[in-house]
C-alpha cells in the first residue's frame, strides 16, 4: 500500500481533492458494527448529507472485495449496512489480510486515518476513538487508534473516548505520542455519553476557524502526528448520559464475568448498554455523531480556504 495505486477513489472525492475543496473522511465500522440495520444505513445517509450541507464532500472509507474505497456511493453504503458484522472490523494491522483475501472490511479509526492520509484528507469525523482499557497497565490492551494518532497527520473529530476506557491513561498515552488534544468550546475532555470526564486539557477551540488554524499549523510544521478534537455530546442528550453511565458499569461487570476480552469488549458493551437503556444509548450515539460531523465539516471547509490563502501568499 505504498501509494494510491491500489485505492479506489470515488469521482466526487477525487475531483474535490484535485481542486483543493473540503473533504471529510468517515469510518465504516460505525455502519457495520455500531448500529443495527436499517438505522445504520439511514444514519450513514444523514451523516453524509450533513457534510455536504456544510460545504464539504463526504468520503466514507471501507474495503469492498479487497479494494480500499475512499468514498462510497449509495449502493455501496447499502451493501455495507446490510453486511453488518459480516464485514470484518478492520484496524491498520488487518488491512493486508483483508486486501489479500479479497474480503470486505469496515474500517476503524486507525485504518480510516491511514487511508485518509494516503489521499490527502486531513479531517476525519467519528463517534469516539479507542483508548487505554481499564487495567491496561497489566493487560497492555491499548487501541491502535492512539498510536495511529501519533504517526498520521489527520485531525480526528470525536466525542472523546467512552467511559468504559481509562480516560486519564488514554490522555497520558496521547501525550507520549505527541498528539495535540483539543476540546471544542470547553476545557473539559468529554467522555462520549457525558460532557465531562473530569480531565482538564489546555487547548480549547471556540470556533471552526480555531480548529482549522490548529490543523493548518500542524500540517505546515510537518510534525507528522495527528490531532484529536473532542466535541461534547449535545446538551439535550447529555442528561441521559448518567443513566447510560450506570448501564456501562453493569455491562463492564458482565463482560468481566463472561471473560469477554480483546476487540470483542467494545461491541459487547455497546450492545449490552443499548439493551439496558432501552435504546437510549443508540439515540445518544447517533446524536453525538451528527454533532461531530457538523463541527468537522465546518472545520474542513475553513481549512480548505486557509490552504488556498496559504498557496496564494506563497506565490
Automatic annotation (TrEMBL):
GO terms for molecular function: hydrolase activity, acting on glycosyl bonds; metal ion binding; pseudouridylate synthase activity. InterPro entries: Indigdn_synthA-like, PsuG. Signal peptide: none annotated. It holds the Pfam family Indigoidine_A. Coiled coil: none annotated. GO terms for cellular component: cytoplasm. It comes from the Eukaryota. Keywords: Glycosidase, Hydrolase, Lyase, Manganese, Metal-binding. PANTHER family: CARBOHYDRATE KINASE PFKB DOMAIN-CONTAINING PROTEIN (PTHR42909:SF1), ZGC:136858 (PTHR42909). HAMAP family: PsiMP_glycosidase. This is Pseudouridine-5'-phosphate glycosidase isoform X3. It comes from Dioscorea cayennensis subsp. rotundata.
